[in-house]
Amino acid sequence: MSSLLVVDESIVRFLNGLLVSNTALGAMVFTISLYAVYVIPFVWLGWWFLASKKTRYDLFSSMFAGLVAWEVINRIAKLFFERQRPIHELPLKEILFERPENSFPSDHAAFMSAIAFFFLLRGQKKAASWLFVLALAAGIARVAVAVHYPSDILVGFLDGFLAAWVVSYFHEVLSKLIWTPLLRLAQKLHLA
Fold it and tell me: What is Dmax (Cα atoms) for the chain?
């Protein structure tokens, strides 16, 4: 057994054990692991109505980076790497409903970290900090409920960085070709 797998399993067992012995903590971590990713669209929507035109372009690109990390980079990675979720491999208490697909890399971590990394790369450190806190909390919670190993989360963050970097590199082109027409449409519909 590789040393990475031993570390992964040890961390999952430790965090999962904390939840089994503490019902209140388990409920809180369960909620974070399941719903943290859904906070992003609500924050995005609220931010949209308060944002300047430049920030709206950043919001478009950040969400696009998240989708690229989740639906492109992770999907490609999952074609080459298959890893069962810890709940299927280790004798642990199931805290979250069973997920059918493999765990490597984490889609939640890729999506959430891509958005955070995008804002960091655009120099918006305060927004990036809050988004990283949310992404880390979700990642740790998903390890604790045994749907991911820590390395799944780490590679998800790497995928998120890659997507954010690529989208940030092409941000000006995306803004001219795609985001400007979308923003005009939103303005005509009185959504911006």
Answer: 59
Q: Are 85 and 147 in contact (CB under 8 A)?
A: yes
Q: Which has the closest alpha carbon to 96: 183, 12, 6, 190?
A: 12
Q: What is the mean pLDDT of residues 99-127?
A: 90
Nearest to 110 by CA among 60, 57, 56, 148: 148
User: Residue length, the chain?
Assistant: 192
Determine which of 27-31, 87-91, 121-125, 174-178 has the lowest per-residue pLDDT on average: 87-91
Calpha distance 169→4 (Å, rounded): 33
Judged by DSSP in three states, 177 sits in helix
CA distance 121 to 123: 5
Mean pLDDT of 17-34: 81
Long-range pairs for 181-186: beta carbons < 8 A, 24 or more residues apart: 182/60, 183/53, 183/56, 183/57, 183/60
Where residue 52 falls among pLDDT bands split at 50, 70, 90? confident
CB-based contact 33:136 (threshold 8 Å): no
pLDDT, residue 85, reads: 76
Interatomic CA distance for residues 126 and 61, integer angstroms: 17
